[in-house]
Amino acid sequence: MRAIRVTANLRVADIGTAKDFYTGFLGLGTEEFDLGWVARYTAPETGAHVQLVTRDAVAPEDAVISVHADDVDAAYEQARALGYEIVHPLTTEAWGVRRFLVRAPDGNVVNVVQHREAPPAQ
Predict the structure, then answer these.
(1) pTM, two decimal places
(2) Residues 6+ apart with CB under 8 A from 79
(3) How far apart are CA 87 and CA 92, in angstroms?
(4) Half-sphere exposure of residue 54, counting CA atoms within 13 Å on the CB side?
(5) 84 contacts: CB under 8 Å, gap ≥ 6
(6) How does pLDDT run across 65-89, given as a tens digit for each residue?
(7) How far apart are CA 15 and CA 52, in angstroms?
(8) In this structure, are residues 30 and 95 in contact, taking their beta carbons and an 8 Å threshold?
(9) Which residue, of 10, 15, 49, 51, is most buried by count of CB atoms within 10 Å of its CB?
(10) Strands 65-69 vs 109-115: parallel, antiparallel or unpaired
(11) What is the arithmetic mean of pLDDT over 21-30?
(12) Which residues are CB-contacts of 98 (< 8 A; sequence separation ≥ 6)?
């Protein structure tokens, strides 16, 4: 698997309440998305970013990091071949990503994700 980037997933009780600290004080002023249960904030000048998560909407556990992969299907097959516990199966989610969650040997849950390409304009 080739990781393209890694994003910290910070557990928060309420995204709206936590948002001001991360956007204002830390300067992560660009909201890339907000699905209500997860939102990503980025510093436009540097690309530094963080995701705030209240509770994963569909997976049974929350991931501590999201690893953006160049080929999530191959990564899934590799994780299975290596015998890692799959916490959430390879799924194309309604919000535009293909992902799975895997438990690292240390117990941390990792979200391995790839954004789907947008369909061509008609």
Answers:
(1) 0.87
(2) 86, 100, 102, 112
(3) 15
(4) 14
(5) 102, 103, 104, 105
(6) 999 999 999 999 999 999 999 999 9
(7) 6
(8) no
(9) 51
(10) parallel
(11) 95
(12) 72, 73, 90, 91, 92, 113, 114, 116
Which of 111, 109, 117, 61 has the alpha carbon at shortest distance from 91? 111
- Contacts with 114 (C-beta within 8 Å, 6 or more apart), sequence order: 68, 69, 70, 71, 72, 97, 98, 99
Please state the φ and ψ torsions of residue 120, each to the nearest 5 degrees.
-60, 150
Contact between 15 and 52 (Cβ < 8 Å):
yes
Torsion angles phi and psi, residue 79, rounded to 5: -60, -40
Q: How far apart are CA 19 and CA 52, in angstroms?
A: 8
Q: Report the C-alpha gap between 1 and 74 in whole angstroms.
A: 7
**Strand extents, DSSP E, the chain:** 3-11, 30-34, 38-42, 49-53, 65-69, 85-92, 97-103, 109-115
